[in-house]
């Protein structure tokens, strides 16, 4: 079923708060997000900190290292050069045509085409025999060092034998662009993609001096309970075509919106179909096209990319058919950008398939009046409205559909849980709402018959005393206070 703007706006209104709670629960320093529909930003927001040490809050304008999102820009630039009249390059051109006179160490690349590199079928090494630039042990290679690294790094597989992800291959495509365009890689993608779309917070590589941009500080993993430590920013230099781009969630949503069919600002529809065609299936329900990851969520085919840079984990997915884009950027090496972005799309897919067997709500009820975030000692739930649907969503999962339940409002104080994820949930039982004189929900007796409270009341009842006391101890304390 096609996505409506109303549905997108309802999901966006809920997702902002949900992502904030996931950011705090997962102890991610910062999460920035945006959602676009039909080329328009519906929502953008940020939770947490851009710099923990400086006490700087994260904003929607802080740029992140978006790493392998860069491959989508590089592939787009290659397709643009193939579409000039006459073509500046051809996708079946040999790679060596665009390299300097080939040393003996590169003779093995003689049969590779540009297409082989675009879909990661080249068999080429991923990051070379010395990839410690990823750990800031030395800088990313410059152009000469890249070729030297390639000479010293054997190709583990023959061409087109299997999918083998290669940052080195995409770095070489940057040189192809330079030779075909007659200018630097940065100049070409700036002119042909960034400026054309007005992406004011996007750049081909990290530049601390020339842009005036603010960057989110990256942080190490909290693995094994370790304290997060900030990681210095680093330019990707000759590997910028594979991993150098910096951007914001909002800019990425606008960029991927231009990859929907019918939008001719960057590429023809024919070129976009080439990019979005799956060549390999590296994982279940996932394929790789020309610079694009492709994934199926239900019947929905998504295009996009993830990115992993020291201290930054990022993910953007686009549904080009329904023109919906979601981007989630995080500034920690162990952050859950992909599960969170996937979770939003899973909710959209769930809502796109109404169940006609679900009873109607009672006449005259205002579904918004049931909504809110409610806590019990066992966990928390969101009750959220999406069009004519009222959902109960436990918020301890990155996939909001994992334990989701569907409510039917019977009267202002009662809703029936008519659908749940599995039989362990209280399906068939009622949620009972207690309200004040204005109609505001004060509590909900919900899953397992427990009473759930809004944040402030939950803190007062359970957390403010420093210990959740057993009934007898609590009663004794209350008697003692009364006697005093």
Question: What percent strand?
Answer: 15-25%
**Overall geometry:** elongated
Q: Please, how many domains?
A: 2
Q: How many beta-strand runs?
A: 21
Level-2 CATH architecture of the largest domain? 3-Layer(aba) Sandwich
Low-pLDDT ranges: none
What about the largest sheet?
A: 9 strands, antiparallel
What is the CATH topology descriptor of the largest domain? Beta-lactamase
Main sheet strand line-up: 3-2-1-13-12-11-10-9-8
Q: How many DSSP helices?
A: 12
CATH superfamily caption of the largest domain: DD-peptidase/beta-lactamase superfamily
Q: Give the class-level CATH name of the largest domain.
A: Alpha Beta
Residues in helices, as a percent range: 25-40%
Given helix and strand content, the structural type is alpha+beta
| Mean pLDDT across all amino acids | 94
Q: What gap, in angstroms, lies between the N and C termini?
A: 65 Å
């Amino acid at each position: 079923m096609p996505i409506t703007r109303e549905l997108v706006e309802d999901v966006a209104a809920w997702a902002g708060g949900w992502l904030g709670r996931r950011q705090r629960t997962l102890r991610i320093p910062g999460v920035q997000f945006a959602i676009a529909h039909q080329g328009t930003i519906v929502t953008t927001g940020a939770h947490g900190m851009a710099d923990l040490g400086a006490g700087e809050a994260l904003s929607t304008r802080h740029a992140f290292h978006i790493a392998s999102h860069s491959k989508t820009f590089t592939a787009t630039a290659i397709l643009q050069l193939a579409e000039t009249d006459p073509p500046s390059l051809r996708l079946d051109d040999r790679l060596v045509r665009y390299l300097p006179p080939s040393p003996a160490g590169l003779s093995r690349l003689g049969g590779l085409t540009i297409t082989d590199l675009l879909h990661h079928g080249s068999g080429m090494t991923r990051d070379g025999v010395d990839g410690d630039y990823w750990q800031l042990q030395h800088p990313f290679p410059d152009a000469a060092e890249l070729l030297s690294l390639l000479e010293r790094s054997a190709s583990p597989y023959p061409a087109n034998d299997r999918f083998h992800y290669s940052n080195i291959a995409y770095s070489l495509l940057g040189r192809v662009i330079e030779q075909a365009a007659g200018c630097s890689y940065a100049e070409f993608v700036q002119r042909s993609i960034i400026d054309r779309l007005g992406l004011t917070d996007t750049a081909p590589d990290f530049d601390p001096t020339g842009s005036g941009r603010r960057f989110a500080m990256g942080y190490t993993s909290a693995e094994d309970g370790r304290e997060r430590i900030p990681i210095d920013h680093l330019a990707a230099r000759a590997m910028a075509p594979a991993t150098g781009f910096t951007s914001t969630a909002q800019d990425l949503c606008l960029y991927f919106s231009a990859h929907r069919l019918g939008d001719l600002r960057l590429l023809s529809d024919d070129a976009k179909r080439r990019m979005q065609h799956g060549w390999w299936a590296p994982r279940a329900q996932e394929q790789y096209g020309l610079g694009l990851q492709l994934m199926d969520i239900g019947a929905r085919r998504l295009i996009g990319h993830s990115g992993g840079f020291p201290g930054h984990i990022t993910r953007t997915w686009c549904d080009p058919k329904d023109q919906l884009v979601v981007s989630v950027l995080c500034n920690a090496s162990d952050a859950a950008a992909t599960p969170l972005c996937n979770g939003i799309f899973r909710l959209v897919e769930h809502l796109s398939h109404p169940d006609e067997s679900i009873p109607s709500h009672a006449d005259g009820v205002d579904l918004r009046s049931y909504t809110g975030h409610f806590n019990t000692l066992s966990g928390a739930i969101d009750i959220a409205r999406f069009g004519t649907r009222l959902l109960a969503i436990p918020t301890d999962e990155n996939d909001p559909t994992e334990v989701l339940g569907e409510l039917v409002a019977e009267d202002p104080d009662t809703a029936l849980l008519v659908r749940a994820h599995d039989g362990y949930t209280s399906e068939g039982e009622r949620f009972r709402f207690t309200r004040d004189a204005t109609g505001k929900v004060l509590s909900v007796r919900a899953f397992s018959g427990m009473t759930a409270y809004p944040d402030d009341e939950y803190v007062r009842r359970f957390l403010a005393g420093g210990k959740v006391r057993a009934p007898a101890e609590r009663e004794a304390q209350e008697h003692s206070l009364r006697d005093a």
